[in-house]
Amino acid sequence: MLLASMCLWPFVAAGAQDLPSAGALSPDAADGEAVAVGDDQEIVVTARYGEALVEPEIELDELQIDSYGAYSIGELVRRITPLTGRPDERPIILINGERVDSIQDLASFPPAALKRLAILPPEAAGRYGYAGNQRVVNLVLKRHFVSWEAQASVKAPTAGGQIGGSGSAGRFVIDGKARWSAQVQLAGESALFESSRASSPPRADDDAFRSLRPATEQMSVSAGLTRPIGRFSASLSLNAAASGSRQSLGLAQTDPGARAPVLLGRQNSRNLGLSTSLSGPLAGGRAIFSANYTRVWANGRIDQPDGLSPEGFATSRNRSVSENLSTRLTYNRSIADLPAGPLTATLTAGMNRNRTTSRFRNGIDDDDRTVRVGQDRYDGRLSFAVPIASRNENPHSLLGDLALDFAGGLTFGSRETSRPRFELGANWSPVPALRFDGSVSFAKLAPSLDQLTAPYSEEVRRVYDFARQEIAEPVWVTGGNPDLGSGRRRTLSLGATLRPFDPRLLSLSVEYRGQQSTGGAGGFPGVSLAVEVAFPDRFVRDAAGRLIRVDARPIRIVRDTTERLNNSLTLLLAPGRKEEGASAALTGHPWQFTLSVNHGWLLRSELLTSLGAPVIDRLDGDTAQSRHNVSVQLVAGKPGMGVTLDGNWQSGFRLRAPAGSDGQPDYLHRPVTTLNLRLFAEPERLLRTPEKPEWLSDLNISLEIRNLFNSYRRVVLDDGSVPAGYRRYDVDPLGRTIQLSVRKRF
Question: Is 70 exceeded by the pLDDT of residue 448?
Fold first, then answer.
């Protein structure tokens, strides 16, 4: 009955555009302010619609959201991450001030469906039951929204040799607390061949049959539905996708005079996902139950030279089927009223079940293997958000605002011992313009389910072989590693934020983050001489010494230590705005400006792979790692047009030859700066003529130039010469690209 009613609802809601909308109310009423209903009657709403439990640090209204020119809410969230001070981390998402399990059904909605977007301070994570060192973004939806959306784009590098494109169409509806969507997406790119980026001199005679980038194609279909059922809200989403790639690997060696076949690498995958959730008030609190199921089918084929085969090659094949089932229950409620505010508790319990079957057949030696792995894991977490002092409750508080977060959890699974974890966080604002926050955590960890059970896969990748000082194309192996062990992890985070003027005008922050893992699992650190010395069994070479295979599956570690310092500046300018509470219309200059600058400084990054082995110092030349990274984002826009400029600078470093490697040079990597430019315009809003063509209505045209100045990381040896394999298009085959997109709303 529940499923049937949810499936019938979209047809009933198809006429939502004919229903009374928020526009029938006053703007204040739609946003949750006090509204006079009669001569002696007044309805008072204590908070705006969709307001979170914590006041925002930064808030973007509809005009500021529009200035980003994003195609979807998911793309918008990715673009505003620099404003959080952590541009490399995806924030936690709330919808209308409430915790949700996923925004999968909302990510494809156009940004025009948003009333506003708020970036919350660090203490918000603890209030909603998350770890205290995460950033939180609140998405406030419009009460009513109906739209058809279609988009098409084409892109190509300015150096030529490749072309790609994408298209999508979807229907999106919001009707109060109910919403639904359906969308189809297509995308593809042609292959980029070495002959289009000819080296000087050419690397081989088969450049026209060797691709630098494979041809790719993707297709996806998604549908989502959320609707109220009594006091609860239920959601159901379904997605299916298929993707494939085709890579040319050169010509096979055959008898003289015979036509040589082209060696190919092919990868294909299909996936199906289903998720559902039920949330609402329960026993004085709020509960969320969610369940997710995914199934992935993948297969790959790689042609490899084989002198014993009449065709001159043999084909290796791999196939896998993996599935995951997860459920989670979250319950949050206030358990006591303290002088500074409510004491809230959050209880979370979840289950995760993974199953993977992988089959691999080596075409050269006919080795045929089938591996089946599975893992069940259960976890629970209890957290408390404790307000100690509050200026809102006591304006004369000497402590200002002070809150603590406590959390403890337990994880256990099949063939695993139980592993506890503990977290402590504090947030203190002695005066409104200054805030300090910190957190510390300790956890016993097991490898993630993906690290243990990910499907086995092989593909050919281009890497630089430092031992032979040349470009190599080894078979790159990925997947899970069931031999990984457990370990421990300690983290420490300390930060401060200063807002010397209007709290939402200028923000300056600094944060120290340290993490040490002892034992456990880590990601493969990449290809370098130091890594090959540490993991000799992960690198396979043929009789001539050529690199032919790299096992890049997760590794066991003894210790991994990282320390970094992050600094950020955020500036928001909206000239000509009326005072808060007035209409959103502009009275002066219409441009909106948003500037964010983030500097990441790696203080320490070391990896110890085994007792007695040398430490891999990522910052002292053992891996290709920059110590400093600066990112800048400038967004400027007004109704009908906007521009975004993204910049990134990475410091240089020296990749050193390990001790004992005679004759191996050092590689000096120069600093590199890249810039991306995006422009968009809505012609209907820019034209001043009284009569405008109908086809211009809700039309958006955008132009994006990535790597504006065609920059790349330059590498030289000590004598200033450029080593083979580090020429312009060896480092970055694509270079500058231009993309033209057209979006239409109906």
Answer: yes
Question: Hey, which residues does 566 pair with through a beta bridge?
Answer: 511, 600
Closest C-alpha to 120, from 573, 505, 504: 504
Residue 689: pLDDT band (50, 70, 90) is confident
From residue 343, alpha-carbon distances to 55, 436, 454, 514 in Å are: 17, 21, 41, 29
* Closest-CA residue to 326 (of 302, 275, 292): 292
Q: Residue 201, preceding bond cis, omega within 30 degrees?
A: yes
The tokens 């009955």 sit on which residue?
A: 1
**Cβ-contact 162, 211 below 8 angstroms:** no
Tokens 């807002």 — which residue?
Answer: 499
Cα distances (angstroms) measured from residue 268 to each of 238, 296, 337: 21, 11, 56
Tell me how far the alpha carbon of residue 496 is from its chain's centroid: 25
Backbone angles phi, psi at 714, to 5 degrees: -85, 140
DSSP track, 623-679? SS--SEEEEEEEEEEETTEEEEEEEEEE--EEEPPPTT-TTPPPEEEPPEEEEEEEE
* SS3 state of residue 6: helix
Q: Please name each of the domains of the chain with its CATH number.
A: 58-745 (2.40.170.20)
pTM of the model as a whole: 0.86
What single DSSP character describes residue 13?
G
Distance CA 530, CA 626 (A): 16
Buried b (16+ CB within 10 A) or exposed e, 32-67: ebebeeeeeeeeeeeebbbbbbbebbbbbebbbbbb
Mean of the per-residue pLDDT values of the chain: 86
Helix, strand, or coil (residue 716): strand
